[in-house]
Amino acid sequence: MKNSKILIIKNSWFHIVNNTENAGEYFYEVLFELDPTLKPMFKTNTEEQSKKLVTMLSYVISKLNALDEIMPQIQGLAQRHSKYGVNAEHYQVVGQALIQMLEYKLEKQWNEEIKDAWLEVYTILSSAMIRSASEVSNV
């Protein structure tokens, strides 16, 4: 990823974390609207799950300049998710929910440049997760 895109992602995420409320909860609202069949996969309440999501995103975003360093953690996350029933098709819905949440929370700041940067990083991460999960299921 180019440094300019990493900066866009970091700045937009910083804005969301520091200037909006309930980004994680809004993400899950959108996710379950897009695909209600996903809701039973989540055993914890939405508030707790939302905190986990925001924490994980914050961590990943802080490491965008060194994605190779955290790739084992990303792969481990994918393997855990596959045990919960997550499959490759679910990543598209999650990506759609993420983009909708970002657009809603960033409001007037949202633009194509921000969207492109987030889509790029999500594609990198979700592709790695799908590959990792498929390797485990093929073993």
- Which percent range fits the helix content? over 70%
Number of strands: 0
Low-confidence runs? none
The rounded Rg comes to 15 Å
Query: Which range does the strand content fall in?
Result: under 5%
Number of helices: 6
Within CATH, the superfamily carries the name Globins
**CATH structural class:** Mainly Alpha
Q: Can you tell me the number of structural domains?
A: 1
Mean pLDDT: 91
What sort of overall outline do the alpha carbons produce when their principal axes are compared? globular
Write the layout of secondary structure elements.
Layout: H1 3-19, H2 23-34, H3 46-62, H4 67-83, H5 88-106, H6 112-137
What are the salient characteristics of this protein?
139 residues; mainly alpha; Globin-like; globular
Structure write-up:
This protein is mainly alpha-helical and 139 residues long. It has one domain (3-137): Globins (Globin-like), CATH 1.10.490.10. Helix content is 78%, strand content 0%. It has helices at 3-19, 23-34, 46-62, 67-83, 88-106, 112-137. The protein is globular.
Describe what is shown at a glance:
This protein is an all-alpha fold and 139 residues long. The protein has helices at 3-19, 23-34, 46-62, 67-83, 88-106, 112-137.
